[in-house]
Amino acid sequence: MPNSYWYGGLVVLSLLLLGYALWKTRDGRLLVLHFCLAGLIDPLEYFILILFPAYQYFPSVTGGLWLDNMLGSFSSNDFIVPAVAVTAAAFHLRFVWLLLFSILFMVVEWLFLWLDLYGHFWWKLLYSGIGILIFLLLGRHLWTLIQRNSLNKPITFFYTFFVFLFVYGSCHFIQAHALDVHDLSVGWFPDQTRDHIAVSELIEAFVALIASASFFMKTSGRITMLIVLLAFDGALLALEIMEVDNVGELLFYVLLQLISIFVVHRIVKYGTRREVS
Fold it and tell me: For the whole model, what pTM was predicted?
C-alpha cells in the first residue's frame, strides 16, 4: 500500500471524528478549538521538526524531502492529534480515556516506524505518549473554560494567536508552495525548501502577534497595526528575504494577511462568544 494512503487515512479518520463530535454536540465552537489546538502544536514542531529534526515523515507525495515532511506533519498535527483532543474534550472524557488515547498514539507511531512510513532521529515513543497526554488534558481544560465563558484576556490573546497560526499558516503554505506567489530565503540551511519553511514560520508568528493584539484594539489601534504589518512586509522585500515576481503577487500576499486577520477575528469571536472591541 502506498505511504500516502496511510497518511490520507489519518486525515479521513480525523474528519470523521471531528464531524461526529460536531454532530453530537451541535456546537460549532469545537471547530475553532480544533484550529487553536492545531496551531498550538506549531511552535513545538518548529524546533523539533525544522530546526533540530527529531523525526521525519515519509508520505511520498511530492518527491521533495521537506515538502513531504511538512505534509506528513500536517496529517498528524493539523488533523489527527487535534481531532482526538477535540473529541475527548467534547465528551468530557475522563483521564483514563485520555491515557488510553495516548497509548494508542504510541502504538500507531510504532506501526508507522515498523512500516518505514516515519523515522526517528533522537525522538522516543515515550516522548510522544507524554506530550499527547498533556495535550489532551490541555484541550479538555480549554474547552471547559470556553463553555463556562471563563476565558480572560491573556488566554483569549493566545487562543487568537494559535487559531491564526493554523489558519494563516495553512494559507501561507499553499500560497508559496502550490501557487508559487513568493519565495523566502535566509541562508540558514542548504535545502531551499527547509530554509523557506524556517523563515516562513517566523513570519507567520509575527503576523499572528499583530492579529492577536489588534483583536482587542479600537479602529486607531488596528490602523497602527496595519502600518506595522505593511512596514514589516516592506522590510522583508528590502532585505531580500522575500521575493515576488510582480506587483500583483505582492498585492495577493498582503491581501491574504489582511483577510486572514479579519476572518480569524470573526472566528475567535464566535468560538469564544467574546465581542470584538
Answer: 0.95
